[in-house]
Amino acid sequence: MFRYLTGILDTRERMTWKIYAVLSLISPIVDIFSFSVIIYIINIVVRENQASPELTAFTVFMVLVSMLKCLFELYKSKIANRFVYEGAQKLSMKIYELLIKENLTEHNKKTAMQALNMVRNDTTNCIQIIVDWIGIVINGITMAGFAAVLIYVSKWIGVVSSIILLLLMAVVFFRMRTRMREYGERSRAWSIKANSQITIAYGSFKEMKIDDRSTFVLHKYGDASQAYAQVQGEYKYKISSIGVILQNSIMAAMFVILAVILVFGTNLSAILAPMVVYITALVRMLPMAYNVLNGMNNVEFAEKSYEALKECMAEYSLLKEEEKRSEAVRQKTLTLQKGVSVRNLTFGYSDRVHIFQDASIDIPVGCSIAVIGASGAGKTTFVDLLLGLLKPQSGHVFFDDYDIVTQSDAEGPCRAGMGELVSYIPQTVYLNGETIRNNVAFFEEEEEVDEARVIECLKCAQIWEDVRKMPDGIHTLIGENGTAISGGQRQRIALARALYKDFELLVMDEATAALDMETEKAVIDSIRQIKADKTLIMVTHHMSLANECDVVYKIEDQKILRVR
């Protein structure tokens, strides 16, 4: 686990953890040295019954060493925290890159809260595992050093005490190990579920209010959050109980050893100094034993995060290998001079019947195409296949001579992106909580937004008059997912976003479903006027809109049939 996690770090983070490990190793060396000095000073004072000036000066020097060690510990803590959060940030970037570059099929298997947990929590937990392992090793070495001093000073008493402490630690860890993994898995699952209930409340707010189901939603969140709190409470109790068990068990063992000494009539005055050292060393070892067990339990608790991260990083490695292979392939600039041609397309989601079976369609350049069909016939799936978001089991999708399925043209394998060629309005539109301006120029840098072009696109989408009357115009905030505006306004802003992009092919998946017929026709007329030579593909249920198109296709019986 430790080797794997340190192996996936960047060069800088690898150097940081090594520096932290070295700094952590210095601390116990200073501790053992300081403790040995205390033994040395006590022995001299007891033997000579006085302190020389040199001894006093040396003691003052050790005071300064202790103060410097305090500053050193603060610096080490800073390094550790920086390593955890910077390392987690770098890992989160890799996981986030995977999430936004993976294919649509894999994307649809995850919820937003699962993705959020992987990006934020799992990465932090896994970097913390590295710190915990370093702490386990360093505290173990320190304990061994103190145990050696203990045995040297107290002989058989030190041996017995060290063995008792080691056995006690082993018993506690192995009894709690499985439970800690279970706590970690349950805590992660309930955290995701509780957070999901919050998104449900925001995503279905209107239905919740109308159906008067707020109490139901509240109870669902309460159940999840209570389960999470219960798991966390049990976990924290188990962790805190370790200290209690260690402290009281060792205290009882000390009294047993003292009783044995008294039974055998040992001269207490003769062993007073060694006993003071013995007790001091044992007291110093207890926090180290607790830290070792705490670190090991934290590692077990984070096991599920580690498994999730390892799975993601395996997929990330495949992604980067694929990108590397792709870079070696010839680059092609995608064109749309002839049109789009779909040939013998067969597709079905796993474990389901085929949605398309040997389906074909031709989309000439400059034409407007309507795609109709019953609900569930596969209209959105067809769009996803056409745009390369899904890969068919067989068949081809050609943009001119380039096949996006096999990623090749007449000259052989090559790669081409359709980002500069296609503009797309999905069935479910996403708007963030920023301004109308930023939602139209959605992927533009703030300083690169062309406001004149934004206004032109808003006019084309038949929403400029509404925006102009708003208090802040194009700088008006529209709320998360456009909650401050109407459904029709949301769709028209999404349409303006698509028009802001310079495209050759505009694909609209039910993009005007929330508009009245008059506004819908005005929008299409505006698009035709401004983008007269562009190709349009419109998925719609509105026959009035379909009749405005040059060609109408219907998806039926796993085929794409031309009906006009």
TrEMBL record:
Subcellular location: Cell membrane
Topology within the bilayer: Multi-pass membrane protein
GO terms under cellular component: plasma membrane
UniProtKB keywords: ATP-binding, Membrane, Nucleotide-binding, Transmembrane, Transmembrane helix
InterPro entries tied to this protein: AAA+_ATPase, ABC1_TM_dom, ABC1_TM_sf, ABC_transporter-like_ATP-bd, ABC_transporter-like_CS, P-loop_NTPase, Type_1_exporter
Domain ABC transporter: 340-563
Single GO term (MF): ATPase-coupled lipid transmembrane transporter activity
A Pfam cross-reference name: ABC_tran
Start and end residues of each ABC transmembrane type-1 domain: 19-300
TM region positions: 20-43, 55-72, 130-150, 156-176
Protein name: ABC transporter ATP-binding protein
